[in-house]
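User: My instructor asked us to take a sequence, write out its structure as tokens, and then describe one feature of it. I'm not sure where to start. Here is the sequence I was given:
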Amino acid sequence: GYAAFGPWTALIFTAGFLGGFLLWVLIPTQPPFKSFKLAFWVTLGLFILHRVEEKVMKFFDQLSAITGTATPEITSVTVILLVALSVGAWIAIPILIKRNYAFGYYLAWTFFASMGITELAHFIFPLFIDKPYSYFPGMGSVILLAPIAWWGMYRLAKKS
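Assistant: Let's start with the prediction itself. The structure tokens for your sequence are:
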């Protein structure tokens, strides 16, 4: 994230992974995947919708204006690695958990924390623009995405 988008955006990305790590350590449950399967797949689907909204509404151009860091090309090595590592890891969650790998639960926590907590930054970004508070690209889908991710965290934390 740092190499692709600079320090401020990397800090936002890190919040999801660090927050997920803290939740994983503080709430060491290991429920079967089926107990949060629906929340996982709906959150993943809404995340895809969210990324489409960000692309169509030029989220990264707006973010670039705030951070002063140029938006990298989508085909740049840093962006490809960032997407492959984060999204690729999240897609592996069902397989890892079904095989009883603790790392799968860490990734599940990072996924839900990133979607349910970090994505709320879309509501903070307008505060850094020199005009009245208004829509910022990505806000619309976060209204659906965050609560479903909170539900996923609840299901993940719940004892079987």
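For the description part of your assignment, you could build on this observation: The CA atoms of residues 144 and 159 lie 25 Å apart. Try explaining in your own words what that tells you about the chain.
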